[in-house]
Amino acid sequence: MHFHDDALFPENQEKLVITVAPYGPEWELDDFRDDLPLTMDEHVQAAVDCYDAGATVLHIHVRELDGKGSKRLSKFNELLGRLREAVPDMILQVGGSISFSPEGDGADAKWLTDDARHLLAELDPKPDQVTIAINTSQMNIVELMTADDIAGTSFERPEVYEAYREMFVPAGPTWVAEHLKRLQANGIQPHFQLSSIPQLETVERLIRRGVYTGPLMLTWVGIGGGFDGPNPYNMMEFIRRTPDGAVLTLETLMRSVLPVNTMAIAMGLHARCGNEDTLWGRKGEKMTSAEQVRQLVRIAGELGREVATGKEAREIYKLDERYADADATLAAIGFAPNRKPGQVGFTHHS
């Protein structure tokens, strides 16, 4: 991304889109019962509370009544239907993992089979987005967690800690290409959750080969454990390599969430918060998802940056746009054009 001399002036920045992830599938209910929803009514109320606080993108998981993360698409369909009525202006973004909660003591934190994950393209009513990982990688979400982060939570149990320590994201090339094909065919926008520059480069190659032809919605996920860590040098290099036409959100975990989001807001990027990312405000003090959203709205106000309404967020996300081919996609996103036969030197759009 290119930063002009006036790029940090809020009047020259897009309005802020806040993504909230208030369903915390990795946590057990007793870890923060005041904020983690169980019943369908509680799931819907969490969305309403976060929307009223200022969030316009809702990252969705859903629980069964036993407290475990649901793997039933019918449960997601039920929630999506309720959310369309309760928060019609919110962008509904289903987490592409569906669920990664361990099922019982010592169980592995397993993702669903490839075929089951493809069924996310068949959700009814359909979500606006489904998140997608690129390239199979380790996802050890406890690597950066401190003793304070897990104090008093289920992660203090060794079997739970080990399950998440050994977790990985299956996202091989065959599955990715097929999943992108199905999502696009059903009018669902992929939201790329990327951990590093190599994954961004793979996305660029998919676009250059015409596998994906739409707006580029990215989240840089700086959670360590196989992903980039929340190091400003990692973050800035990812930002530098992101094309100007992309929409970029920054995500990290635990008490790195607030400083990283503050930097995102100041730089004209977009923010993500919620109990899936952190349970904490100040050290030792829990903070609900809606409280985290209100905090970001306040910081944006201090910086003079406006927060997008639901309608404005949908325009920023270009939900209804698709492009004719690879060339049109590269031009719209801001990547250099493909090399034509016999063409030498660096390529650029005229």
TrEMBL record:
The protein's required cofactors: Zn(2+)
Keyword Methyltransferase: no
Gene Ontology terms, MF aspect: 3-keto-5-aminohexanoate cleavage activity; metal ion binding
Top-rank taxon, per record: Bacteria
Keywords: Metal-binding, Transferase, Zinc
InterPro entries noted in UniProt: Aldolase_TIM, BKACE
Keyword Metal-binding part of the UniProt annotation: yes
Pfam short name (any one): BKACE
Stated name of the protein: Uncharacterized protein (DUF849 family)
Naturally occurring in which organism (per UniProt): Nocardia alba
